């Protein structure tokens, strides 16, 4: 009931003429007292609700609609942190502007609010995720789902890749810098975009796992293979070969370059510390040994 109406009723009851008996004391009928009490209670409650509503409207901001850009695009600042998934890359003078223009559309396609821009030595990239390492269950599952995402019969993110964090400290080139993966593009040119990871080393002593990875790469070189090592923050990787975007099918991710196929057959697994297979456990699928896989070659700058 409106506050104005309650106040009018209350005033009427308070000013209503009361009947008296001659020679007797005036009194207010019981029903009048009850009505006055109810009106006072209702009036107080109505004014309290109105005050709460006014305070709430001034302190709370409306939430954006489910599909509004405010929700889809956050966070919009440049990505930083751990490993992330590269969705699209852009090159040339307009790379950053192109990435910003594509960001809303790509964010909606993958259904994530953490799509952001990462600058690269060749331009810019749209990325998502922030993972402790490339072996984390969330990273593996997210990459699988993103690669399998179908839009109008196509798989626009079939070439999505996990990439390591941007380096913020001095790079450790190791004892054989010419075999460090960071030198791959200097040796083989800009078409050297991918390499096949066949192993990784971990140890409580960082120097120990670095030495082991370097020895493994040198041993492969002595056998005639194009091998590299790469020292990450938590592990040291061993890879073989250099490949471009044209060496595998973007839809199925199967190799179309015979050399890549031969390398995968020669090094079918990604081994831990040189000889330990990694067992992958995925819901609804049989356990399997983790295969070797393509990784993007990092920038040498």
What descriptive keywords fit this protein?
35% helix; six-stranded mixed β-sheet; alpha+beta; 301 residues; four-stranded antiparallel β-sheet; globular
Structure description:
The strands form three sheets. Strands 5, 6, 7, 8, 9 and 12 form a six-stranded mixed sheet that branches. A four-stranded antiparallel sheet has the order 2-3-1-4. The protein is globular, with a radius of gyration of 34 Å. The chain is of the alpha+beta class. The N and C termini lie far apart (72 Å). It is built from eight helices and twelve strands. Helix 1 packs antiparallel against helix 2. 35% of the residues lie in helices and 19% in strands.
How would you summarize the topology of this molecule?
Elements: H1 3-15, H2 30-59, H3 69-72, E1 83-91, H4 95-110, E2 116-119, E3 123-131, H5 137-148, E4 161-163, H6 184-188, E5 194-201, H7 206-222, E6 227-231, E7 236-243, H8 258-266, E8 271-272, E9 276-277, E10 279-280, E11 288-289, E12 293-296
Parallel strand pairs: 5-8
Antiparallel strand pairs: 1-3, 1-4, 2-3, 5-7, 5-12, 6-7, 8-9, 10-11
Helix pairs in contact: 1-2
DSSP summary, beta strand count: 12
Helix content: 25-40%
Q: Beta-strand level of the residues, as a percent range?
A: 15-25%
Task: Look at the structure and give the mean pLDDT.
Answer: 76
| Distance N to C terminus | 72 Å
Main sheet properties: 6 strands, mixed
Radius of gyration: 34 Å
Uncertain stretches of 5 or more adjacent residues: 19-28, 56-81
Number of helical segments? 8
Shape: globular
N-to-C SSE string, H for helix and E for strand: HHHEHEEHEHEHEEHEEEEE
| Helix/sheet category | alpha+beta
């Amino acid at each position: 009931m409106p506050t104005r109406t309650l106040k009018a009723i209350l005033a009427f009851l308070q000013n209503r003429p009361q009947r008296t008996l001659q020679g007797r004391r005036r009194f207010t009928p019981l029903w009048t007292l009850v009505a006055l009490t109810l009106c006072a209670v209702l009036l107080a409650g109505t004014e309290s609700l109105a005050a709460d509503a006014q305070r709430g409207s001034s302190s709370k901001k409306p939430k954006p609609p489910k599909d509004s850009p405010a929700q889809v695009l956050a966070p919009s600042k440049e990505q930083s942190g751990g490993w992330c998934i590269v969705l699209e890359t852009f090159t040339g003078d307009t790379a950053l502007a192109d990435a910003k223009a594509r960001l809303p559309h790509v964010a909606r396609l993958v259904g994530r609010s953490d799509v952001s821009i990462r600058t690269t030595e060749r331009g810019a990239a749209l990325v998502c995720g922030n993972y402790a390492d490339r072996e984390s269950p969330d990273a593996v599952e997210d990459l699988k789902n993103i690669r399998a995402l179908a839009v109008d019969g196509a798989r626009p993110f079939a070439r999505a890749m996990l990439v390591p964090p941007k380096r913020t400290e001095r790079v450790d080139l190791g004892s054989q810098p010419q075999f460090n993966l960071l030198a791959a593009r200097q040796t083989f040119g800009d078409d050297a975009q991918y390499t096949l990871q066949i192993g990784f080393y971990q140890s409580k002593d960082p120097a120990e796992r670095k030495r082991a990875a370097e020895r493994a790469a040198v041993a492969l070189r002595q056998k005639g293979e194009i091998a590299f090592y790469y020292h990450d923050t938590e592990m040291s990787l061993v890879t073989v070969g250099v490949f471009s975007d044209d060496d595998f099918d973007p839809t199925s991710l199967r190799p179309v370059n015979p050399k890549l196929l031969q390398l995968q057959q020669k090094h079918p697994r990604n081994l831990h510390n040189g000889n330990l297979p990694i067992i992958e456990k995925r819901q609804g699928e049989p356990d399997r040994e983790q295969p070797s896989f393509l990784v993007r070659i990092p920038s040498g700058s």
